[in-house]
Amino acid sequence: DVDVNSDTLRVRRSAVMAHDQRRLLGLGSERVHIQIALALLLAIGCDSHGSVWSANPFQWDTVQDKLYSFCYNQTGNYSASALVALAKSKLMIHGMEEGAENAPVWQNSEGKIGAAARLLRDLAPQQLQLYTVQIDFARSVYTSGAWFNAHPECVLRDESGNPVLNNSTQPSVGHCDANVSVPGKAYPFGACYTYGFDTECGRQAWVKFIVDTVEQQNLDGIFIDGFQGCDPSVPNGSCRVLSKCTAQVATAWMQGLNSSLWALAQAFAGKNKTVICNDTGQTYACDSEIGCFCTASNDERFGGGISGAVSLMDYNKENPRGGVIVHVPHIAPYNAGIFNRSFAAFLLGAYDGYGFGIGFQYDCQLGGWLDVDKFPLAQKLGPPLGDAKIELASWPGANCTYTTAARPRQPQTLGCLMRRSFQSGVSVFLGQYLPPDNPTRPTNGGLCIWWSDGSVTSPDPSLCPKPR
Q1: d(C-alpha 424, C-alpha 426), whole Å
Q2: CA 202 to chain centre
Q3: pTM (2 decimals)?
């Protein structure tokens, strides 16, 4: 029972917890969906201002306490060196290709991820173990994908009644193996169906496979991919997989996806599980006043800089109780310049529950993951002493649109100076402190992290003002 007016929100928790699962996964009016979502928010301990990352693994003690990893070992079991390196992060997201070449080849990703998670738990019992799922294509590398292959009545169909498919373009990549075709197009290496969130059986199966895997493999939650160009949090949202579907099917599919995501929130309620929603080039945030089905969000390609830091600050305003992880591209192998630029921006914009990914090499046996000891893991941080300060540079012509609350589509950042201090004595600066040596592509921007031990991380400390 939900009664909403301008001042009050009342929910009978007993009614929420007794709510029939079939109704939750069924399609109804928009009002019903809003009622369910609001009820679930209070039932799982949230208010209408955002999600709660109750299992937050990231603390402020040291740099290492902010790190997470996202990779897989496709060829088989982890090497000892890879396990030791990965165990140093606070959260591990296992990719779907985990152990893909182990028997059964390119099948049962859920079980192989569980086995890898157990190896890491032996070394790092407190590390959170998550596995990757998607909202678009039913990949046969999962047991769930094989089930959808066998149940085409539960998949998405286009305006001609044909299944919406994603083809595997390489015979060596075994994500998709459905032996199916559509008029005018063949899939010689196999195809993936698209989850049928517009069908009751598709919704129920998607939720059940995820919940069963998390429970049976003793995992701490999931990382959901596929929100790029797809926002199920808005009533009239759309998704790239729906381009060839009728308007009626598209609407039903989006509503069904929304209901399924809230069903996961209900299934994980009170169990300290994490649901991270992934986007590319930005942090996914539910565009809704009724909260979010995600407990944390990921920015897949965090480039750092002034805009990157401000984007993290803005997300915190929208969702102050949720967490954020950022995945930095091209840190494979270790690249000091990329790390310095991205980590400085991260420190300027991070809040409680924010984590930093240190590699973009998906194979755990390679790249940035094994270079973890090259990062300043032991440097102390301590909680921040307030938000980052944004100031306008003093050189003539400096322009910084971030000194106001406005967020223009093309912000001017060249004249922005950002500073932040931490309890341990760490101080961070980022910005064009000196007049630019080039009006469009300056090479004398300032970046400094003054650590509590007196050392400085900077390409050139003379390009920064003195720490405050």
Answers
A1: 6
A2: 24
A3: 0.88
